[in-house]
């Protein structure tokens, strides 16, 4: 990049053009579309549990089933979604995923609005409740998978393509700003939803979310459409996007033909080669898109870092439903929990500001190592709280430790994301990130299973310590990855000189 281009940078982003000033808003198209998407996601994420429990006030069953359905859909089908993203033109992925995601939330919002408006005298009784609850869960699963496709193609693919042949820090800047937008929405959207539900009604909340998705989807697509046609590199898909039948499919066809011949060749007097048949079946299974996706994932050099990130999802040490419910049971007021959640989000936003400063100095791998160590060290405060007899002191330590650890968590998330973006080939970017999201959903589901098995709030110390050990294991895995890449964990010669 020459000095003229460098002078035209805005927020670290410029694009090759004869008129730089005309192209400056392009990066803001990305940011605004991300805001529209994340604001809707965070409103729905926070509201759906509250709306479900309002429909059936005496049970958490509807809320739990919805959460499990959403997580399970990503865990099972995330690989296939990623594979589809790799084999589909970029703009078509955006068209389909945005339509499905927003359309499913609109339907689910209208269904919940109907249930809430008629909850005292629901036509059809339990049958209608069951049917509409199933509809909401199906729409939630579709929304989660469509949202995953949008995240992969925009956040994991487009930003890499946009940053190529630009300033070295552009990818870091784009990742940080988009994560900052996400955390800001996570901070403000629940406040807005809470105000709407308390000052107006639950029905108005459900219908408002449906209306937001109806109005925002066109604007979001228009922004991404303009960005796509303004950047030629986005229009140049990899080989897997250009061919209707990719190499994996061709190899599968070849294996099918080969094994069909092998199975018909007699060895002695009419006996068939059953071992070859069994081997052929195994080979065909391994080349199915689902299994091929996992194979591709574990062949990546950055795989250990991805597994370390996924381990962080096996946790109750976050301001999710499990920890907040336990703290509320201990007597911590709801407003304190809301304030703590807000502080944790602000700490996360601070991490997205610090990361672009540290990354150029420490480089991505070392920044990730420092980040996971910071997170684990700060969570030691939360782990220590399990040995404190005073209930109020233990609750304060748990809240402080978890909130402070968000600084290391989000810097580590940014580090691993950038490592994967930099190292994964374009033609496998979708499927590998699909596997990554599936792995994270599996870990999240396991944390719910752990909470179900150890459901007594008095024994919450056990899930806390298990979560702390999971973060420790993640730190060890990432340290091993860092050692393999860099050849050392720290500069021993510099340390010895410092000690002397």
Please describe what this structure looks like.
Residues 1-23 and 238-272 have low confidence and may be disordered. The longest helix has 38 residues, at 126-163. This protein folds into three domains: 20-244, Growth Hormone, Chain: A; 245-287; 300-489, Growth Hormone, Chain: A. By secondary structure, it is an all-alpha fold. It has helices at 3-7, 20-23, 26-55, 61-86, 90-117, 126-163, 170-199, 202-230, 239-242, 247-264, 274-286, 289-298, 303-311, 321-329, 334-362, 364-384, 391-423, 429-453, 461-486, 492-499. It is built from 20 helices and no strands.
Descriptive terms for the model:
500 residues; single chain; mainly alpha; Growth Hormone, Chain: A; globular
How would you briefly describe this protein structure?
This protein is mainly alpha-helical.
User: What fraction strand?
Assistant: under 5%
CATH fold descriptor of the largest domain: Growth Hormone, Chain: A
Mean pLDDT: 81
Which second-level CATH architecture of the largest domain applies?
Answer: Up-down Bundle
Shape: globular
CA-to-CA gap between the ends?
A: 43 Å
Largest sheet, in brief, is: none
String of helices and strands: HHHHHHHHHHHHHHHHHHHH
What is Rg?
25 Å
Structural class: mainly alpha
> How many β-strand stretches?
0
Count of discrete alpha- or pi-helical segments spanning 4 or more residues: 20
Number of domains: 3
Q: Which percent range fits the helix content?
A: over 70%
Membrane topology: Multi-pass membrane protein
Transmembrane segments: 60-81, 93-117, 129-149, 187-215, 302-322, 334-357, 395-412, 465-483
GO molecular function: iron ion transmembrane transporter activity
Function: May be involved in iron transport and iron homeostasis.
